[in-house]
Specification:
Length: 339
């Protein structure tokens, strides 16, 4: 296997990519048995680490990486554009990489940094709940998480972030539906691959129900992914199971548009038969008919702040920062007040 890469080595050895990286870079926190096994596989496959892994202290790199979770969420488009503009203004080059949904986000980030010798990395979306100190030693480069969230404060000393108050924003969206008179409100949210943001928005949904004296019903929850098709399928499953819903909160606009299409395909009307609340504020939400009521995230500004923070760290101006941006509920045509 002359073209083996670090991922191949990890798969053959049955260990994480980060473990292979630690072996290559002689980190002490690897068992002797694992170290020997990995080194034997490296020799057998004739694996040559990029530019010799021992020279991975990349002082001359002018490349900034942007790692995007999935390829279907148009919310990231404006963020990426604003990051690229900032990166170019600093005389650097942006390298964009889309992570497959089946690949661990932390390991994908480490491999991306190593292979491209990145000077800094911005991650859009993804699940980084299992980040620990050894991962940051492997990365050896400044990291900014944008449009994702970690609930554990102790980990925030190792990276920067630009995010929103996901739980609060979801609470306000569902509370808005409650104030319109809705009491049977379903939710379509994200599953295992987005535990951070998905869990926080689910918490906000539950808290809004509780504050309005509405009991949470597990049967009113469905799981989707960031695609039109997933929202379409999830809404159909939800309505097959629960027939008396009057509204549904969907935790991304792209899923909400798919869900709305499923509603219309059943001969139902929006919002007369079922109100739909989205989340993100993408352009599609405005031009879909009926236009979606949604929670607007400041995507363009999120991208600019992420890049600014990254370059502050690269140029040793500041330590890690954690910025919380405000959201706005955009009222439109997809939600109806009940009499």
């Amino acid at each position: 296997m002359s073209n083996a890469n670090i991922k191949d080595i990890a798969e053959i050895a049955g260990v994480a990519i980060s473990t292979v990286s630690r072996v290559i870079n002689n980190h002490p926190d690897v068992s002797e048995e694992t170290r020997k096994k990995v080194m034997e596989i490296i020799e057998e496959t004739n694996y040559i680490p990029n530019n010799s892994a021992r020279n991975l202290k990349r002082s001359n790199s002018k490349d900034i990486g942007v790692l995007v979770k999935g390829i279907y969420n148009p919310f990231f488009a404006k963020i990426i554009q604003s990051i690229e503009e900032k990166v170019a203004a600093h005389g650097y080059t942006m390298i964009l990489h889309y992570n497959n949904d089946n690949v661990n986000d932390i390991e994908a980030a480490i491999e991306f940094v190593k292979e491209k010798k990145l000077k800094g990395l911005i991650c859009l979306g993804g699940n980084f709940s299992n980040l620990n100190e050894s991962h940051f030693e492997d990365l050896e480069t400044p990291l900014v998480l944008a449009s994702t969230d970690l609930e554990e404060e102790r980990k925030k000393a190792f990276f920067s972030s630009v995010s929103i108050e996901n739980e609060k924003a979801a609470y306000e969206a569902v509370n808005y539906l409650c104030k319109l008179g809705h009491r049977k409100i379903g939710i379509i949210t994200i599953g295992e691959e987005d535990q951070c943001v998905g869990n926080l928005r689910l918490k906000g949904y539950k808290r809004a129900l509780e504050c309005n004296h509405i009991s949470f019903d597990e049967s009113s929850k469905e799981i989707g992914e960031y695609t039109f098709e997933s929202g379409f399928d999830a809404l159909n499953r939800l309505l097959n199971r629960v027939q008396d819903l009057t509204a549904v909160f969907v935790t991304s606009d792209i899923m909400a548009i798919g869900a709305a299409k499923a509603i219309l395909n059943r001969g139902l009307r929006i919002p007369d038969d079922l109100s739909v609340m989205g989340f993100d504020g993408i352009d599609y939400a405005k031009f879909f008919h009926p236009s979606l009521t949604t929670v607007n995230q400041p995507g363009e500004y999120m991208g600019k702040r992420s890049a600014d923070i990254l370059f502050d760290i690269i140029k040793k101006k500041k330590e890690h920062q954690h910025v919380i941006l405000k959201t706005e509920l955009l009222e439109s045509e997809s939600c109806k007040k009940l009499i």
